[in-house]
Design a protein that fits this description.
Length: about 60
């Protein structure tokens, strides 16, 4: 199904919380990754496969794939 078939949509704020659950030897969830360097920030990553990550500023609407 393509996005244009979804009908009318609106953009709005939503709130999420980090979580992780391990099943079948794999971690699933929105898992926070600690900074690797002193000037790095936290990156919540969508696991498994780290297919999407979010970064500051949190209200920018931007993410990394």
């Amino acid at each position: 199904m393509k996005c244009r078939n979804w009908g009318h949509s609106i953009f709005a704020r939503f709130v999420v919380q980090s979580f992780a659950i391990e099943r079948f030897g794999t971690t699933f969830g929105l898992v926070p990754r600690a900074p690797e360097e002193e000037d790095d920030g936290w990156w919540p990553e969508l696991q498994p496969r780290n297919c999407m990550a979010f970064h500051e500023p949190w209200d920018s609407g931007e993410y990394d794939t």
